[in-house]
């Protein structure tokens, strides 16, 4: 999890090739995740590494164009050292800046003279392995190494994409599109991590036969790329769409839909959203059953919602949306979140899906034993707010999660000291995990801040995971317009659901609910989420 341990400064500086420092915001105001920076500026905080020199070193060593290496890595991972997981059986997890998988890791490590573990975990080793593989493909294909456009077939070969249409889109629009447009990223300290200058270049790669791109049958803003991997939904309640499941492809967009339209994949989703939000593919009709969640439904994992469907395949009654990207990535592009929210709104209207966090849910919540997607940094609060906004509905409800990446931090955020420990070891948590701390005679609270535009009377609920080591009298302190009020909650019971703490009058501006550690020793207190309604 990536919480605020104290109110953080906003990075509001404009980014060109030369970086400017971040601007401080006064506490306790926290900048919104959705800010005014351009997409290129938002790339600024995605990598802690200074990568330009590493790309140059690998390019020189293996006689590969440095800009091609940068564009390929940008396309695959947006220059993040991803720690991939398996999203589709038969497709190995991707690793590192170059998103190397399976045999590519093994062969790349051999060619670069490094260990496979280094390829998976070390930026330079990963780039060198990718460069070595590109060089090998160039030799096999007879590439003119001095001609940047001629490298396109080698980039396709490295990608492992087999669908011819997906290959063409990947290399022409994504890799060579990045070369033409350019990109830049900063380290968190404000230094240029990697820069890709725009170049006038076209991929020398055959296009498949041109045909009209039909719109998706259920979403006009999508492209219809039908997958053979589906079947009919069952009749009755179990076949009525009641969930929207959010996934990450654990790879790039074109490789994702290319794989899911292959009958050998044995998997599918209804939709795939690209990284920038500029394109969506529909693969399966919403009326049909896509194969995107390999688990039967267990309502205890989802806030005791829809318990009448326990034991049924989640695919029976859900629509699946894949997103180009990875569960491990540090943030999601604003354009992708926006496009996905519009899509979820459309699905929810057509299928009468409730627009809340129990009906628009993470794949990892429903299949936690081997999936985590879309990961801890999917911006759930702002995403659901966008879905409701696009559907013309608004809610005064504020949910503050234990992971600030899930919060719309202009409305609420959590603040904890270094004495609190993040965990996801007990099932039934809200969002992506929770904080815990030992009880002792010290306040040291977890503080849930929330913002009200005007004074109001609100009901406060809290969510926790229950266990015998939890405090039977966890002190929740509400700071109200007339003082403070403390409620002692038994966290040994009623886990995995909302528990009402009471109704209070709050002032306009920033307010807080605090969970103190000051309780009988020998227990822990759990700071998971609070809801203001």
What is the topological layout?
Layout: H1 39-42, H2 52-62, H3 66-77, E1 82-83, E2 94-96, E3 100-101, H4 102-112, H5 116-121, H6 123-141, H7 152-159, H8 164-181, E4 183-186, E5 192-196, E6 223-224, E7 230-232, E8 243-246, H9 253-260, E9 271-273, E10 280-282, E11 288-290, E12 318-323, H10 334-351, E13 360-362, H11 363-366, H12 380-390, E14 398-401, E15 412-415, E16 421-423, E17 434-438, E18 446-452, E19 456-463, E20 474-480, E21 483-489, E22 498-506, E23 509-515, E24 524-527, E25 529-532
Helix pairs in contact: 2-3, 2-6, 3-8, 4-6, 6-7, 7-8, 8-9, 10-12
Structure commentary:
There is one protein chain. With 533 residues, the protein is an alpha+beta fold. The chain has three domains: 52-196, Lysozyme (Orthogonal Bundle), CATH 1.10.530.10; 223-390, Lysozyme-like, CATH 3.40.80; 398-532, Jelly Rolls (Sandwich). Helix content is 24%, strand content 21%. The chain contains twelve helices and 25 strands. The strands form seven sheets. It has a six-stranded mixed β-sheet with strand order 6-10-9-12-8-13, sandwiched between helices. Strand 20 (474-480) and strand 21 form a beta hairpin. It is globular, with a radius of gyration of 24 Å. Mean pLDDT is 89; it is low at 1-45.
